[in-house]
Design brief:
By secondary structure, this protein is mainly alpha-helical. It has one domain (about 1-55). It is about 55% helix and about 10% strand. It is built from four helices and two strands; from the N terminus they run βααβαα. The chain has helices spanning about 5-15, 20-25, 35-40, 50-55; strands at about 1-5, 30. The protein has a two-stranded parallel sheet.
Length: about 55
């Protein structure tokens, strides 16, 4: 199953070290450009930022 994620599940799961649950539960995760921009464009790192920036296709 493919799902589209907003910022909250990514940052909250990353904060508790469980970001991998999204892929385990759903397989394919789409992160919209707006979510990427929100996380990567803050000027500081929030939980999940590095994973979102370094994740490929």
């Amino acid at each position: 199953m493919t799902v589209v994620s907003n910022t909250s599940p990514i940052t909250n799961l990353a904060a508790v070290g469980q970001l991998n649950l999204l892929q385990q539960l759903y397989g394919s995760i789409i992160i919209p450009q707006a979510v990427y921009n929100e996380m990567a464009g803050l000027g500081y790192t929030v939980p999940g930022t590095i994973e979102v920036q370094t994740r490929n296709g």
